[in-house]
TrEMBL record:
Alphabetical list of SMART domains matching this protein: CBS, MgtE_N
UniProt xrefs under InterPro entries: CBS_dom (IPR000644), CBS_dom_sf (IPR046342), Mg_transptr_MgtE_intracell_dom (IPR006668), MgtE_N_sf (IPR038076), MgtE_transporter (IPR006669)
Organism listed in the record: Kitasatospora griseola
Entry protein name: Magnesium transporter MgtE
Gene Ontology terms for molecular function: magnesium ion transmembrane transporter activity
One GO cellular component, as annotated: membrane
Domain of life, per lineage: Bacteria
Location of the region described as Disordered in the Swiss-Prot/TrEMBL record: 293-314
Keyword terms: CBS domain
Domain CBS: 389-448
Coiled coil ranges: none
Pfam families, A to Z: CBS, MgtE_N
Gene3D superfamilies the record matches: CBS-domain, MgtE N-terminal domain-like
């Protein structure tokens, strides 16, 4: 009885699985049959209700940078003799593979004027670079697919496959036939194009960031290195300065150097200013003295002075690789007060693993790890924690001239993840982190991204 029940249950599951598979197959065919190839539409005849040819399709207009997840088609560009006229979407009766039929015998053809957020899909997106956010790579649009959705035609996907490029080179009857072998959902891409930036800035930024904000800085760095000159600067314009700076810090030095050289000085200075001080100094050090000074002159005076101080130290020393991002505290403060100061520095958490305890003259007394702050009571005084640390000896420090190889040895001997760099008077100048030493001593390994390793 139990065996029969088990057999019946298994048979039922197999039958249900076959039914579901059949439904998915039918749905897949329905979706495939509803797709319209943009490449197949270009040059197709546009006819009125009577079947007479009105003109030839030159391009499709879509509102690319709007609130909709899939950009709606807003009209067509028709080529009539030497004239290019605009036909609004409401006048289109049927849009199918390789053909367009209007909804009336007489149509109102207007001169085309681009409205905010609109682009010409064939001119601005087809064959242009775009970012595949899910695949974290730069690719190129071999074709765009349109489909009917809730009473209108929308852009639903991007074909990036090589067979599609070959199909477009074939006979006309092949060009109109969609071949969706490798199609990216439109919501997973960020497109580029010089004409695609005419919309309002706030609309463009919202649409682009919705896809790009999911990428890690290292992923963005890979993408920036693969993009062309105009596209990479358009991507940087889309990002918040801090997000862009994080990506620049992950770039290969030679690529970052090229990016800063090709950018407008005002834009390059703004990007460098948003970077962490040690990373910014490394980027400037790779430029020619005149180029470096051009950028420093365009930065706020305080930040420029800080970077000039870092650049005054020799490359390969603790002073040349340290960050000036320091959290300093006084003996009379409590743990809760210091935690509040750390919370205000949350955006720099990667640069802070300890706080420097100073005396009344600003000299270093102790280097207090964040763990000790985490386990201490809120009311505990910093002086008590400094006294407790004193039993293990004075804090291990470096001078600005300490060579990085020696700094690495002292870091490992102290079993710490960072060391404070102090001047001759004992006042802290900065902090050198373990990853700064790795980047300096092993630049190729320190900057190696996973995607490049796989390639």
């Amino acid at each position: 009885m139990a065996t029969n029940t088990l057999f019946s249950s298994t048979t039922s599951r197999i039958r249900d699985r076959r039914t579901n598979l059949g439904h998915r197959t039918i749905a897949g065919r329905a979706v495939r049959s509803s797709l319209v190839s943009l490449a197949g539409l270009i040059g197709a005849p546009v006819t009125n209700q009577a079947g007479a040819e009105v003109g030839r399709l030159a391009d499709v207009v879509a509102r690319l940078y709007g609130p909709e997840p899939y950009p709606p088609m807003t009209g067509l560009i028709l080529r009539i003799g030497r004239r290019r006229a605009f036909l609004p979407a409401g006048a289109i009766g049927r849009l199918a593979a390789g053909q367009v039929r209007l909804s009336a015998s007489r149509v109102d053809l207007r001169d085309f004027q681009r409205r905010p957020g609109e682009v010409l899909l064939a001119r601005d997106v087809l064959d242009h670079q775009l970012v595949d956010v899910d695949g974290v790579q730069v690719t190129r649009a071999a074709d765009l697919y349109l489909a009917p959705l809730v009473g209108r035609v929308v852009l639903v996907g991007v074909d990036v496959s090589l067979p599609t490029l070959l199909r477009r080179l074939g006979p006309r009857r092949w060009q109109a036939r969609p071949t969706p072998e490798r199609v990216l959902d439109w919501q997973s891409v960020a497109p580029f194009g010089e004409q695609a930036t005419d919309g309002p800035a706030e609309v463009r930024l919202r649409a682009s960031r919705s896809a790009l904000h999911r990428l890690r800085p290292a992923d963005l760095a890979d993408i920036l290195e693969d993009l062309g000159r105009s596209e990479r600067h358009q991507l940087l314009d889309w990002l918040e300065p801090e997000h862009a700076a994080d990506a620049l810090e992950e770039m290969v030095p030679a690529e970052l150097e090229n990016l800063l050289r090709e950018a407008h000085p005002e834009d390059a200075a703004r990007l460098v200013d948003a970077m962490e001080p040690d990373e910014a100094a490394d980027a400037l050090r790779d430029l020619a003295p005149s180029e470096r000074e051009t950028l420093l002159e365009r930065m706020p005076s305080e930040e420029a002075a800080e970077l000039r101080g870092l650049l005054s130290h020799r490359e390969g020393t603790a002073g040349g690789a340290m960050t000036t991002r320091l959290v300093t505290v006084r003996m009379e403060q409590t743990v809760s007060e210091v935690r509040a100061e750390l919370a205000a520095q949350a955006e720099h958490r990667a640069e802070i693993d300890a706080v420097a305890v100073l005396d009344a003259d600003g000299r270093l007394i102790a280097d207090l790890p964040l763990f000790e702050l985490a386990v201490a009571e809120d009311s505990t005084r910093i002086a008590d924690l400094a006294d407790w640390l004193a039993q293990f000896g004075a804090p291990v420090t470096l001078t600005p001239d300490t060579r990085l190889a020696e700094a690495a040895d002292r870091l490992m001997a102290a079993r710490k993840s960072s060391l404070v760099v102090v001047g001759e008077d004992g006042r802290p100048l900065g902090r050198i982190l373990a990853d700064d030493i790795i980047d300096a001593l092993l630049p190729e390994r320190g900057r190696l991204h996973l995607r490049r390793f796989r390639q």
